[in-house]
Amino acid sequence: MAIPALRPDVVLLDMVMPGVDGLAVLRDLAGGGPAVIVLTSFLEDERVIEAVRLGALSYLSKTTAVDRVVEAVRAAAVGGSVLEAGTAALLVERVRQGHRRNPLDLLTPRELQVLAELTRGRSNADICLSLRLGRETVKTHVSSILTKLGLADRTQAAIFGLQQGLVPLDEALDG
């Protein structure tokens, strides 16, 4: 990508360009790159949130007044942000929702599979066979699950899995 080679202080990035995904560009610029201001026609929830997560300092509509864009560039040059009211409201709502986030979102897909097996009452040896994993790998996943969910043992993990509806009760009883 040519942007890092130019070493700009601030980049105005259109999220929708022919043949280029704005989020992919943001990912490439993440980590010590220039300050990024996103300009877009769409204020879609997920794209706004992902752009901010990837380091965009400002997220503005293409209909934003020029003086407001200039303000955003000046702010970004010193690490600041300028947000339109709609974007700010969206981010505030997402932060509020984040406090009520589903704890299962903390787990990787493989950890979810291991938790489902725990919920079914399976031993580590059985989990190894059903998921085709090594014993140490299963132990590591179980430990990670307990840590991420703040649980003391595999029994608590199984109860948690049931409470979250990870497996139907009859499957857990059959284990």
From TrEMBL:
Domain HTH luxR-type span(s) in chain numbering: 100-165
Keywords on record: DNA-binding, Phosphoprotein
Modified residues (4-aspartylphosphate): 14
GO biological process: phosphorelay signal transduction system; regulation of DNA-templated transcription
Ranges for domain Response regulatory: 1-77
UniProt keyword annotation of Ribosomal protein present: no
Protein name per the record: DNA-binding response regulator
Higher taxonomy: Bacteria, Bacillati, Actinomycetota, Actinomycetes, Streptosporangiales
